[in-house]
Amino acid sequence: MSTMKVKWKQTLVSYSFVLPYLSLAALFSILPMILIVCLSFTQGSLLNLKAMEWIGFDNFLKVFSNANIYLRGFLNTLLYIAIIIPLGQFVSLLLAFLIRRKSRTNAVFETVFFMPLIISMVAGGVIFAYVLSQNGPLNYLLMTIGLPAVDWFGNPFMAKLAVCILEIWKGATFFTFIYVAALRGIPSEYSDAAKIDGCSWWQEIWRITLPMIKNAILLNVVMTTIFIGQIFDSIFILTNGGPVRGSESVVFFIYRVTLLDDRIGIGAAMSLIFMAFILLISLIQMRTLRSDTEY
User: Rounded to whole angstroms, what are the CA distances from 229 to 95, 170, 272, 286?
Assistant: First the structure.
């Protein structure tokens, strides 16, 4: 068999292993993206796709000309990102530092910390809705110690804060284990050398540990930005966009415009615009946090 035939055979065998994934990616990612791009240039109803009318860039022009209508969802999403990313990463790092040493005790905590990850967002949202309700356990505890009850779902800011708490509780676990893997990959010799040189606990963390897990921090921050940019289910379960649409995100607003108002072209155009915005933020984060040093 010629060398060329052997190379072609090896190439075909290699691609056969990734073919199932590529097929699913094409069906559930690439094809929907192409459809969204096509729909963004049309006007019509989801109930009658055959009557869709090609209108060019009119949908994008409508979005930008009526930007004040969509601004609330955009600002709410930015607020979610601004709150959840720093607090979520801080909680994840704190938990990771607590359980980074391998021991039987930490193995138990790892199991406990893993629990929110395997609980569905629906179940978690229902639990939080009960705990934060007007007559729920949290308000009962606050009144017991002499503090006033909090109307979590009657105030727009408190409603957004409740969504942030749910997202941090649900997502911090995932990022914790990424940080744990990164921390356990740091050779112990670095810590020993720092102690010999007289470094304090804080100096060791700030000057040695954090720089050595910078790539893990970058990964988690970018992933959190992408996840929170798509925030929907926690809002739908906890607040349904209320009160007075005060907790709506961009994705929730797109859902309302596309499915409830039946303006699929506008919704598709908004999706592409916001996708470009999230991509821009992610690129800025990668450029800012990227480390050229490999440890």
Answer: 24, 16, 13, 16
